[in-house]
Amino acid sequence: MCFHRILAAIDYSPLGQTVFEQALDLARSNHAELMLFHCLTADAVTPPVMLPGELGLSPHLMTQAYQTQQGYLEQQTRQIQQLLTSYARIANRQGVTTQFHYRCVDPGRGLCQAAESWNADLIVVGRRGRKGLTEVLLGSVSNYVLHHAPCAVLVIQGSGQGQQAQGQQPTAQQGIPVSQSEEANTTA
User: Fold this and answer.
1) What's the pLDDT at 152?
2) What is the dihedral of CA 78, 79, 85, 88, to 10 degrees?
3) Does domain 5-41+95-165 have CATH number 3.40.50.11260?
4) Three-class SS of residue 142?
5) What are phi and psi of 159, to 5 degrees?
6) Residue 2 burial (CB < 10 Å; 0-12/13-18/19+)?
7) pTM
8) Neighbour count for residue 168 (Cβ, 10 Å)
């Protein structure tokens, strides 16, 4: 199977670096274009609810909370721009045509939308290995992408949440493109 446009789901984690490395290797070996994509999460973009009177808080405290939230979003945006720029430079130096994009959107939905609009034929995404109640409560981006992607999906399995929480490098296993869903999400 030959790929021409590979979309890599990038985040700050060691698994995100592994996803980048795998996507870069595939892009080089297939002479494919590479899109590095990141989704800023809802907690970074949701402004605090302005109900100071009902909560017994002063409007000044609520304004400070909003300004703090704005500062956090700006900081996250700068950090992801730096990370994506760094990865794009690495890929470009290795002869891979690379671009990057980030959006404030639910990660699973955002990846599927980006893959569809960019006409990707492969999404490379990491899976943290959450199980049971943790997966139910926090959700699984990779599971969503497997079931809604408009193209093939390569899932890079991390070694589990426990090692990442301790700051250890997860081990990744080379995955196989496992899904070419007909349930493509077409909302933009």
Assistant:
1) 96
2) -140
3) no
4) helix
5) -85, -5
6) exposed
7) 0.73
8) 11
